[in-house]
Amino acid sequence: xxxxxxxxxxxxxxxxxxxxxxxxxxxxxxxxxxxxxxxxxxxxxxxxxxxxxxxxxxxxxxxxxxxxxxxxxxxxxxxxxxxxxxxxxxxxxxxxxxxxxxxxxxxx
Length: 108
Prior knowledge:
It comes from Opisthocomus hoazin (Hoatzin). The protein is built from five helices and no strands. By secondary structure, it is mainly α.
């Protein structure tokens, strides 16, 4: 019975470690998603055309055309979209103080 309790404890420790790993992964995804949403908000405020935004999105999806969907792919797509958005000419030509104001938005 004591051996069974030890095994159950070890199993619970492993499950807790897996949950903590998943929590960290989700936190990273949430952070990257917030960055992407802030950039999209800035571009909307700069009146980016739907066509230009569509091109950015399609470019992102084409560059991440891995046939294996999954957790790693989600982060890859978000990261690539973030990079594509930051390279957008409208954001590059924005005055530095305006660009910083969008980055300082708090997480609601």
